[in-house]
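=== RUN LOG ===
request id: a7f3
mode: sequence -> structure
chains: 1
length: 250
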Amino acid sequence: MTSYLRSLMSELIKLRRQPLLLVHVLTPLAVMGIFLAYFAYAPFSPVSKVEGYLQAVALSFPMMVGIVCAISADQEAAAGQYQQLLTQPSRLIPLASKLTPLLLLGFGSTLLAAVGFGTGFLYMLNQSPYTLRFYMEAACILFGSSVFLYALHFFISLRFGKGASIGLGIFESLAAALLLTGLGDHNWIYIPCAWGGRMITIWMLYGDSTEIPAELLLRPGVFYCTVGTAAIMVLLGSWFWRWEGRKSFE
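=== RESULT ===
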């Protein structure tokens, strides 16, 4: 635990030299500002506005995760070809200390995007049909359904480079948008990039109701999301334990 805390503190200090913190703060502020300005005059119902905004946040998640994981991995490559990750006695400690700040920043950014929008929608536009608790719960759903993507993109960034991670993230965001339509009605539970958008939409329709139609596949979706996230974390740790660094020609 002591080694992990020391490694984590080192990673937090590194954030001062990286744009990660600014990306996680400025991006949600800019997005919610744009949406609030638009919704001040848009003729849609308040519920439709909230649903559209949260879906937009969910669709942007894969691309954002691809970018921040690429930045984090690229920093290690520039600092010495991943030697700080590979030379510690326990491989899992540096891996965990790299993922922890990314997850914390991701959760904070999601919370800022959801609660910040809710605050503006509630107190500035006086249109919100929901309380701030609703937006906090929405942030938890959006982030929890996207943890899988952090492990996936961190692996892609280490193994194949930042271009592959960012490219995959853009593709996933586009695919997630398509899977919100009828194309994803029976397939979204198997595709991680679609979990956030689908879950937040179903949750907005039914809330905590126990009478959610079975054809929406929410329970199987939650199961696949939970098991898939746990499985990819184990697989990432197993792979990283044997990884010897990315060769220059990879």
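=== NOTES ===
The chain is about 75% helix and 0% strand.
The mean pLDDT is 87.
=== END ===
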